[in-house]
Amino acid sequence: MSAVFNSEEFAWSDVNVILLGKNIAGLLAIKYKKSQTKELRYARGNKPVGFKRGNKKYEGEITILKSELEALKDAAPKGDILDMRGFDIVFSYVTTEGVMKTDICKICEFTESEEAMKQGDQNGEYNLPFICLDIVPA
Known about the structure:
Blueprint: E1 15-19, E2 22-23, E3 27-42, E4 48-65, H1 66-75, E5 87-94, E6 100-110, E7 125-137
């Protein structure tokens, strides 16, 4: 009996991101990660005997079009997205078998807001780094 191997990969068209209850149509990119500080633990001898585990950290970044940035500003207190508190970012995609996979970046806050345009730009692209309290599968 031979194993079935699915060689299809997920495409950008399979991705959906919800922020503040809105499907972000002007999304250009998203990335998020979990990290934890870890060090080797030493005792007798010169080889490690274990690990020390420290704090976990959850962070990411979305890249959106100017129209989406303006919509976020409209929803933000006093028009400043850095004052937005405790929102979730829901990232989902559909597998080739039609199963929805979802991660939720829980209780997020943006850490930077930058405005920029230059000659020749066809559209504005804005990177919005964020931190969150957890990243969990839904």
